[in-house]
């Protein structure tokens, strides 16, 4: 190479590595699930599920990126990190991804607002379903008012997370 | 954005099969997930072993961050302390002077107490204390209320051991990994603690509500005996918790149910103490229970 400083500049005709292309979305979702590592001893479900938010962002930004089975391994990892019963995110995330597929099939055209609507429904499904599965798997009675603040802040956080995801995506595909 | 083209594979047979297979895998995975939840209904800690790897791997990160933020979390207290530093200083100094006498009296009483207990040949075997550790993380995005403790099986922590702070009860150990343990907090919906009112021993049951408060139900039928401000302590019934650990203070009454707030806030306490189960601590020092002899059994059998 003539000029070594040009190595980090994006250039036409160069491909980013396969690991960067395929691994970045998976790693970001796993990091989102791992937000429970933060030393916050919560007294109520206050932390938005960042793993779910990032999964939805990637799915809606890049429909061709993943097949629906990606919900199984990513959901299992989320279950391991969160205190939910093992299997709950595995089930909910995969069903949610299949649902997003079905909705996308019927929609001819969608934009930012439709994305947010799809994400809101998906978030409500996953959080309420998670609360239900946690309560039947030995969690005692759980009132839905308990997850209402978390639902609201997660839905409101979605546009921000999508924006950050798009930034990462730009870096990901840039050679 | 228009509909993505890749979802309809057209006439390419291989692409069609691949898409079909992906849905089959996804449905199977979802079914397996549901099955795992159903298994967890009957055996809540059965698959907790799967968490061992992540709990162990994330432990150093949690500890490091915990050490960084331990000063930050109390910054509001530090700021409010500066607000009325002068007058507070005078008031605190007066209080210290009055408290000093009380402490001396209390020491004398404790000494007398020890002497009297010796006279009664009552050994106060306080061997319940196992170890002191810190809470390093929690299930902050879930509706369950778990906290992760920085000590595990290799340090002697076992499932079911009570966890307390100086202020009061925090919870009990739910599952353990080699170096960490999950603490089922007092406020979790499945944590039921037998309690009694501190001053007159009215028995009650405390259940977590998941939002940082507790539901207190009196065991006696009839009118709700509790009033806001009542202090509840563990009663020792059931053999898990030592008696007389402070649990909660009642804040609100609604018909048959009283609502309480735990006295120990797990997000504020610096370190927690893991204790041996009450039953274990009581029975551990005794020799093996005497085997009933045939004569004794016969005597019991013939007794009316």
From TrEMBL, chain A:
InterPro entries under this entry? Cell_shape_determining_MreD (IPR007227)
GO biological process terms on file = regulation of cell shape
Q: Where in the cell is it found?
A: Cell membrane
The way it spans or sits in the membrane comes to: Multi-pass membrane protein
Pfam families per UniProt: MreD
| Annotated transmembrane regions | 21-42, 86-104, 116-136, 142-162
Q: Which UniProt keywords apply?
A: Cell membrane, Cell shape, Membrane, Transmembrane, Transmembrane helix
Q: How is this protein annotated for GO cellular component?
A: plasma membrane
Q: Which family does it belong to?
A: Belongs to the MreD family.
Name assigned to this protein: Rod shape-determining protein MreD
Q: Which organism is it from?
A: Sphingobium vermicomposti
UniProtKB/TrEMBL annotation, chain B:
Q: Which UniProt keywords apply?
A: Cell shape, Membrane, Transmembrane, Transmembrane helix
Q: Where does the sequence pass through the membrane?
A: 20-42
Which domain of life does this protein belong to?
A: Bacteria
Region called Disordered, residue ranges: 283-304
Gene Ontology cellular-component annotations:
plasma membrane
Instruction: Specify whether DNA damage is a keyword of the entry.
Output: no
Q: Biological process (GO) annotations?
A: regulation of cell shape
PANTHER family per the record? CELL SHAPE-DETERMINING PROTEIN MREC
Q: What is this protein called?
A: Cell shape-determining protein MreC
Organism this protein belongs to: Sphingobium vermicomposti
